[in-house]
Design goal:
The structure is a single chain. By secondary structure, the chain is an alpha/beta fold. The chain is about 45% helix and about 15% strand. The protein has a 5-stranded parallel sheet, with helices on both faces. Strand 1, helix 2 and strand 2 form a beta-alpha-beta unit. Helix 4 runs parallel beside helix 5 and helix 5 runs parallel beside helix 6. The protein starts with a helix and ends with a helix.
Amino acid sequence: RCRRTGCAPLFLRLGGRVAPITSRASGIGLATTRRFVADGARVVVGDIDDDALGAVADELGDAVATVRCDVTVEDDVARLADAAVERFGRLNIAFANAGTASLGRVVDLAVHEWSRVLDVNLTGPMLTIKHAARRMVRGQMGAALDLDTRDELGQVVNAFNEVASALVASGAYR
């Protein structure tokens, strides 16, 4: 599509953009944060690992803000989105990166472990998109990205398409 319309690739359009990125202040989340910052974006990193948040803040300085955020707690996710607007003046991109899995056999899996996987992998992206979209609507622009990770057995289920469709259908997100 970009080749036909002449639009610039995402990495050339990040200058001045603001993005909250959920979990992790390491791995894919950290690599994405580094890339966004290198390409001119400002990032609010949310994670439950306070030490990792401190390390990313030390490494990337004023280009990032950090917020302790459990994506299964709606107030935490709202605070993450608010931090983007308070610190950098807007929110343009939301990257729902948090994810977890239970790699044990289903016959040994406790219901609370399964519930945690669903909360992090389904509710987390929904809350991230919900709270980011509310702030994007005010600013009339934005994009939501969700990282769909799957282990070899395909145990991680992702409902991003359903969440995004519901937001578009409700008129809350375009």
